[in-house]
């Protein structure tokens, strides 16, 4: 089944793009033969041979090719390439734990009649996930300001928030799916013959859920990427931020600089200066869009492989 999925051109193209991007993100200093710390440091003013300032950050793509710099003067190309691994792996982690927690809860009590669950799910659908995440994140940052916590603990709590706001609808989805599977004749017969619950789940339910799990996981990755981009625009960064003061000494302008290097942080720190540095927002947004496009190609390939499997099963029958 896995081999057939990889034989789908759309899945293969999307998978290879993301894989190459991740490999490139981990090894770009060696590929370009540059020092990582030096390449990601803030660029100061440019001077001519006489020591006169000829340019100040942010620099245009024509001044610092290929993408220019952000408002703080950091090379945008190196930032985007280095931030790819953080962005993709964060989205992967959020999607994985959303699906994992939802399936575990749904398998634990698939037939429980929680009367308010569907109503609660419907209510949450009318609250955009971005707004809910923003409210909880800002409350978390306020707590951190009063009671400082380590960056690791902050990231874990942020992950918990981003995971849990997507779990409730998935519990309802998987519960309904599992209930429909448990009502199938061959599974009902298996249970009636005395098979243990764990055996039925492992042998029959989980294999039947495979297609749904894979598709939902890929969809959740896309939703997580979009959510991260929205939070970046709202200047809510994974891992928090530090404030950089720019401008005149007597009238400094504060800019939040994300501690982690994911793409949403790159967008967020430059969004307030969109009219001045549009390239600092458009380039990371383009990488977001292309990555989401690659994920959509993978979803299409997965769907095609399952359709081929269904047709072949129908022919055999």
Automatic annotation (TrEMBL):
InterPro entries referenced in this protein's UniProt entry, alphabetically: MetI-like_sf
Cellular compartments annotated: Membrane
Membrane topology of this protein: Multi-pass membrane protein
Keywords, ordered alphabetically: Membrane, Transmembrane, Transmembrane helix
Transmembrane segments: 12-32, 86-108, 120-142, 154-174, 225-246, 279-299
The UniProt record lists the keyword Membrane: yes
Keyword presence, ATP-binding: no
Main location: membrane
PANTHER family: OLIGOPEPTIDE ABC TRANSPORTER, PERMEASE PROTEIN, OPPC IN A BINDING PROTEIN-DEPENDENT TRANSPORT SYSTEM
Protein name: Peptide/nickel transport system permease protein
Record organism: Fictibacillus barbaricus
């Amino acid at each position: 089944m896995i081999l057939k999925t990889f034989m789908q051109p759309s899945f293969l193209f999307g998978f290879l793009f993301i894989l190459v991007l991740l490999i490139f993100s981990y090894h770009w200093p060696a590929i370009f033969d540059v020092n990582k710390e030096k390449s990601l440091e803030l660029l100061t003013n440019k001077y001519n041979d006489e020591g006169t300032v000829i340019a100040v950050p942010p620099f245009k793509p024509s001044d610092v090719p290929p993408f220019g710099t952000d408002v703080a003067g950091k090379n945008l190309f190196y930032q985007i390439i280095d931030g790819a691994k953080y962005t993709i792996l964060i989205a992967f982690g959020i999607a994985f734990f959303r699906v994992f927690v939802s399936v575990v809860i749904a398998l634990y009590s698939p037939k429980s009649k929680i009367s308010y669950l569907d109503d609660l799910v419907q209510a949450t659908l009318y609250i955009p996930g971005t707004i809910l995440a923003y409210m909880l994140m800002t409350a978390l940052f306020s707590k951190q300001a009063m009671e400082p916590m380590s960056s690791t603990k902050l990231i874990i709590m942020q992950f918990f928030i981003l995971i849990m706001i997507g779990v409730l609808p998935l519990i309802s989805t998987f519960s309904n799916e599992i209930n429909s599977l448990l009502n199938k004749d061959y599974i009902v017969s298996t249970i009636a013959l005395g098979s243990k619950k764990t055996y039925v789940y492992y042998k029959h339910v989980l294999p039947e859920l495979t297609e749904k799990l894979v598709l939902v996981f890929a969809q959740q990755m896309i939703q997580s990427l979009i959510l991260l981009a929205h939070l970046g625009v709202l200047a809510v960064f994974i891992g928090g931020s530090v404030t950089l003061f720019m401008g005149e000494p007597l009238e400094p302008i504060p800019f939040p600089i994300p501690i982690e290097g994911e793409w949403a942080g790159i967008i967020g720190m430059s969004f307030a200066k969109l009219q001045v540095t549009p390239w600092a927002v458009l380039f990371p947004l383009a990488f977001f869009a292309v990555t989401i496009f690659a994920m959509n190609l993978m979803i299409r390939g997965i769907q095609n492989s399952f359709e081929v499997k269904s047709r072949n099963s129908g022919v055999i029958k």
